[in-house]
């Protein structure tokens, strides 16, 4: 296949699957999501494919449905930074991104953990900054659900600003060497951080110098207006949910447009939507594979669970293989705990009902239709070409891939699609830098004044 004269190269990251029904647990190839061997396999596959980074989600409480832990929720949730610290020892170039809440952590402690990962990995750490506003999750923490939803980004903004001040508090020449003293800290080279804000008060000196990449790459995933503005002001990468070309272009244009008022250039923020894929030797075979994957991901129990989240009421009496019942959504959506609540459920339910009636879909087929996951379906050549089209159309700068099998689901993509992307000249054949900022084409962060 001839090399194209593309203007833009794309970025790739790997998301470790396993949240809810993403992974097809019934597949005999599906393994543990707790054993270190699973994390190691996916990370090494991503590094073999020359991916930018490996991404871990986070869950601070097991989700519940109708007062019970959902049977199809993940079977355990390891702490992200611990796993990534272990992976730092067995990978060489791959970036290591962890999701950590800015709501139920403290800046000094988390800044220190992230700086430690950044040093252990020699500049490959990233922090996906998330906020948590529900009291259900907060019950696991001393302060509980004290934070109003309206305050979550003000706390996150102050949190991140303080973390950066801590990371920047050591001068570049802070550490010196002497034949008699060995390595020592120069007098006056470590500044004292004094912060008295609305959410935090910190006074002291940080324990670590700046890492090889300055400080960790910042990832953000919020899609509200506040989230987009927070990302434009602070993030290096956005983990976007906009998977279609049209939605992706609108989101891309909106967020990139916001950068100027924060003194930033478009290339300083990478937009990488989550993307799934289904491959086949032909496009037709890939479509068959995608349909089979979706039916395995949305079994009868899962279909009912999705419907209950939208309708806000117990729907277990209705056959998931039968038609949508003539039942109105409940006024109170308290049936599901620990999940992001569906905004304007009545409108969403009305849309679902209209689709079910138009296409004569069963409950299960309706859920499959309305929660479609496969972003890219086709032969390896088709998938590679389509990904390039997204990047050229400025609908994305790259993709965070979410395979449907743990941990081997990324292997076919690396073996069959990556070589085509490389041949087309839109993806690296070798790492040219050592830090995650190098991989993403990001300059060293500006030092906090």
From TrEMBL:
SUPFAM superfamilies: Bacterial luciferase-like. Pfam families: Bac_luciferase (PF00296). Keywords: Flavoprotein, FMN, Monooxygenase, Oxidoreductase. InterPro entries: Diverse_substr_monoxygenases, Luciferase-like_dom, Luciferase-like_sf, NTA_MOA. GO terms for molecular function: monooxygenase activity. The keyword Kinase does not apply. Residues 29-393 form the Luciferase-like domain. Belongs to the NtaA/SnaA/DszA monooxygenase family. This is FMN-dependent oxidoreductase (Nitrilotriacetate monooxygenase family). The lineage of its organism: Bacteria, Bacillati, Actinomycetota, Actinomycetes, Streptosporangiales.
């Amino acid at each position: 296949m001839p090399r194209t004269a593309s203007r833009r190269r794309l970025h790739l990251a790997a998301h470790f699957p396993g949240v809810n029904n993403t992974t097809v647990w019934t597949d005999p190839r599906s393994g543990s999501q707790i054993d270190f061997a699973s994390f190691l396999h996916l990370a090494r596959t991503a590094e073999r494919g020359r991916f930018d980074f490996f991404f871990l989600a986070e869950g601070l409480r097991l989700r519940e449905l109708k007062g019970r832990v959902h049977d199809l929720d993940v079977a355990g949730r390891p702490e992200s930074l611990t796993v990534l610290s272990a992976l730092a020892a067995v990978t060489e170039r791959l970036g290591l991104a962890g999701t950590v809440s800015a709501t139920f952590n403290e800046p000094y402690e988390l800044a220190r953990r992230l700086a430690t990962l950044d040093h252990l990995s020699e500049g490959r750490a990233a922090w996906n900054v998330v906020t948590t506003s529900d009291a259900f999750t907060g019950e696991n923490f001393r302060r509980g659900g004290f934070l109003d939803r309206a305050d979550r980004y003000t706390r996150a903004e102050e949190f991140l600003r303080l973390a950066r001040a801590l990371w920047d508090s050591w001068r570049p020449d802070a550490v010196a060497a002497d034949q008699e003293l060995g390595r020592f800290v120069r007098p006056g080279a470590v500044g004292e951080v004094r912060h008295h804000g609305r959410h935090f008060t910190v006074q002291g000196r940080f324990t670590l110098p700046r890492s090889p990449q300055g400080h960790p790459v910042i990832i953000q995933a919020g899609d509200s207006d506040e989230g987009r503005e927070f990302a434009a002001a602070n993030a290096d990468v956005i983990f976007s949910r906009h998977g279609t070309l049209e939605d992706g272009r609108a989101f891309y244009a909106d967020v990139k447009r916001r950068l100027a008022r924060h003194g930033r250039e478009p290339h300083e923020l990478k937009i990488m939507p989550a993307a799934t894929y289904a491959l086949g030797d032909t496009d037709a075979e890939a479509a068959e594979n995608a349909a089979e994957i979706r039916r395995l991901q949305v079994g009868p129990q899962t279909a009912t669970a999705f419907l209950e989240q939208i309708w806000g009421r117990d729907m277990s009496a209705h056959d998931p293989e039968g038609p949508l019942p003539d039942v109105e959504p409940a006024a109170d959506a308290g049936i599901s705990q620990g999940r992001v609540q569906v905004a304007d459920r009545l409108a969403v339910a009305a849309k679902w009902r209209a689709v079910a009636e138009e296409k004569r879909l069963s409950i299960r087929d309706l859920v499959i239709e309305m929660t479609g996951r496969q972003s890219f379906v086709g032969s390896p050549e088709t998938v590679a070409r389509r990904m390039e089209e997204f990047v050229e159309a400025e609908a994305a700068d790259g993709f965070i891939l979410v395979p449907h099998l743990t941990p081997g689901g990324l292997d076919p993509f690396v073996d069959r699609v990556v070589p085509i992307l490389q041949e087309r000249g839109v993806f690296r054949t070798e790492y040219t830098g050592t830090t995650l900022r190098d991989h993403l084409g990001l300059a060293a962060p500006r030092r906090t004044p």
